[in-house]
Design a protein that fits this description.
alpha/beta, five-stranded mixed β-sheet, 3 helices, single chain, 5 strands
Length: 136
């Protein structure tokens, strides 16, 4: 491309915009954002304060679902085989639609058995599932 210079006959101002400075500024800003973006995603480590343990509010609509160290499922202190767990939870849900299920898993339980119990609870339609842990 050849650059056209205004001749003396034409006089007046050039009607084309020079975008080169604009592109230079945009490239510099792009580089600045690329360099600073990873710095903004760092995690800040904070030591949280410890509080006293509080008792949960009593709820009349609670079922306790436990997974033992051997991987067996217990529903309200009654052993339930894993294939029948889903139907038991569905029946429980039909009797009381507002029921909340508290899942207690033994520390030595294999995660696979805990995951199977959680999947059964989800397939049965349980919408309120909470995990119970022990404060150490």
């Amino acid at each position: 491309m050849a650059m056209q210079l205004p001749s003396e006959d034409e006089g007046g101002e050039m009607s084309e915009i020079n975008v080169t400075p604009l592109v230079d500024v945009m490239l510099v800003l792009l580089v600045v954002f690329i360099v600073t973006a990873p710095l903004l995603t760092q995690v800040v480590k904070v030591k949280l304060p410890k509080t006293e343990q509080t008792e949960p509010t009593p709820d009349k609509h609670v079922a306790i679902l436990a997974v033992t160290a051997s991987g067996e499922a217990m529903l309200d202190d009654k052993q339930v085989p894993l294939p029948k767990l889903e139907s038991e939870l569905k029946a429980l849900q039909e009797r009381d639609p507002d029921i909340s299920v508290q899942l207690q898993a033994d520390r030595a339980a294999v995660f696979e058995s805990v995951a199977k119990v959680m999947a059964s609870a989800q397939r049965s339609g349980v919408s309120k599932l909470s995990f119970v842990t022990v404060e150490q």
